[in-house]
Amino acid sequence: MAVINIFNPLVPNNIYHGDSRHLLKRIERHSVALSVWSPPYYVGKYYEKDLSFDDWKNLLKDVIALHFPIIKPGGFLAVNIADILCFKDQTMPKIMAENVSRRKVTLSKEEIVAIKSSHPDWNRYQLAEHFGCSEQTIDRRLNGNNIRGGKYQSQTRVFLVGALIEEAAQEAGFYLYDRRIWVKDAAWENSRWHTISYRSVDESEYLYIFWKPGITKVDRSRLTKEEWVNWGSRGVWEIPSVRSNADHDSKFPVELPRRVIKLFTQPGEIVLDCFMGSGTTALAAMSEKRQYIGIDKEKKSVEIAKKATESINLYKKEPEQMDLMINEIEASYGIK
C-alpha cells in the first residue's frame, strides 16, 4: 500500500487508500488525461450503508468538481453508472398488483361476488370457508389490496441518474461529449434477482463521457481498423459481465476501461480511477502502456488491487506474456 504524505502530490503507478474527496486534491494540476471510474450505485452495498441519498448525491458532485483542476485541457472524465431500479419513495402511492400468474388460489372476484349476492349477510370468514381459502384471499380479491412490497414498506420507482451526473459535471466546467451504452449479460444468467411485475430486468449500464475545454488530439491509429468498426465509433458496447465476484462484489470487466483508455489517451499518459475497487482500471492502463493513479476508501480493495498490479508487473518486459495474463484475468471474469 502506498504511504501518503500530505505535503506531496500523488505519484503515478500507485494505488492509495483514502477518501477520494481528500486525495484528489493532492494530484498535480492538469496532469490526468482521462479519469474513468464507477461510483457507488446507491443500491445498499456494505460500503454504502452510511450514505443517505443526499450524501450520495453530494459525494458524486464533490468528486466530479475535484476533477476539473487535475484533468488536462482537452482531457476526459468517463463515469460508468446504472440507473437506480428500486429507488425508495415514501410519497409514491402503494402499487396494487394482481399477480394472477403467481396465485396459489385461482378464485376470482366475480366468483366471490356471485356467491355474496346469494348470501348478502355472509362475512369474509364465511366466504372463505365456502371457497376453502383464507379470509385474506377474500379480502384481496374483493378490495384489490394486494400491495407490492407490503403494507408498511416504502414503494420503489426507477431513478434516472444521467441528469444528476450531467448537472454536476456542467457545474464543474465539463461538457457532455459522448455517451455509450454497455450491454451486459442477461441478469438471470448471473443473478438470482428477477421481477414479479412488468418492470424490466436491467441488462445495461451507461458510460457518460465529459470533456474539459482544450485541444483534444484525435489519433485513429491508436485503434485497429477492426476496433474502429466494431466499437470505436459505435454507441453500444456488448461486453460480458464479470462472472466471479469472489474477491470483490463490484467488478466491471477489464475490456470496459481498456476501450475508453485506448480511445481517449496516448501511451504514457496518466489514467485515474478514484473508486479503484479491485484494480481493473489499473490493469487496463498497464496493458495499454499508460500510467495510472488509483484511490479507494476500502482497505481490502486497495490490497486486492495492489496484488493484481504487482502480479501483472512481472510481465512488463514481455508484451506477449502481459497480454496472456490479461487474457487469463478476463477469462476468470467470463470475458472472451
What's the layout of helices and strands?
Layout: E1 14-17, H1 20-23, E2 32-37, H2 53-67, E3 71-81, E4 84-89, H3 109-118, H4 124-131, H5 135-143, E5 155-159, H6 162-172, E6 175-183, H7 187-190, E7 204-211, H8 225-232, E8 236-238, H9 255-264, E9 270-273, H10 280-287, E10 291-296, H11 299-313, H12 319-333
Parallel strand pairs: 1-10, 2-3, 2-9, 6-8, 9-10
Antiparallel strand pairs: 3-7, 4-5, 6-7
Helix pairs in contact: 2-6, 4-5, 9-10, 10-11
The gross shape turns out to be elongated
- The class by helix and strand makeup works out as alpha/beta
- Average predicted confidence as pLDDT: 83
What is the CATH C-level name of the largest domain? Alpha Beta
CATH topology of the largest domain: Rossmann fold
Separation of termini? 31 Å
The Cα radius of gyration reads: 26 Å
The SSE string, one letter per element, is EHEHEEHHHEHEHEHEHEHEHH
Give the number of domains. 2
Q: How many individual β-strands? A: 10
Our estimate of the beta-strand percent is: 15-25%
* Uncertain regions spanning at least 5 consecutive residues: 244-249
How much helix, percentage-wise, in residues? 25-40%
Identify the CATH homologous superfamily of the largest domain: Vaccinia Virus protein VP39
